[in-house]
Sequence to fold (229 residues):
Amino acid sequence: MTAYAIPVWEVPSVPVEGEAKRFPVRRIYCVGRNYAAHAREMGFDPDREPPFFFCKPADAIVQNGGVVPYPPQTKNLHYEFELVVAIGKQGANIPEAKALEHAWGYGCGLDMTRRDVQIAARDKGRPWDMGKGFDHSAPCTALVPASKIGHIAAGKIELKVNGQVKQSSDLKMMIWNIPETISYLSGLVELFPGDLIYTGTPEGVGPVVKGDKLEGTIDKVGKLGVTIG
Fold:
């Protein structure tokens, strides 16, 4: 047995829908600006350039029904509701035709963003890490295995804040679909079981404040609810 110099932390994980087992989270990759309308609202040309990615720490996961503490050093906390793809098979340089073999299941997630911190870093040509990868920035539902629902290519994605619809689109509006995203990302890094891919958000992102209740749904996948604490 390996002896460690400090206590070992609990492995971050999310539930598996309908099962007692949990899905361990290794890494969280996020696709930037993967819906044309969202790219436009952020002031960018939605031309189909190669996708780009940023990361969140695995322990940024917030369980469904939980509380997202309003983070420090921001006055502009934004929601971004997204389909999450869970990787269940190792692979690098995965061909698009085989990409879905690596998708173990699907969930609903929120890419919480300190927008003012992100924009300040972006405008100076600096990394987005502290705008995107802060504590409690990655709420996620239980995962639904692809063996139960098949693979997701289309379907309604919608987020409400305090009961009011803020984001509403269809997954088929992604610029880079799921096989393309998995294939491209696997050319940059080797993917492993336990990796999550947040696949980008549709238009309608905006700020939240303490006490706001967020409720997101994706057809066939599930419903995510969190409160801003």
The mean pLDDT is 95. The longest helix spans residues 115-123. The CA atoms of residues 165 and 201 lie 14 Å apart.
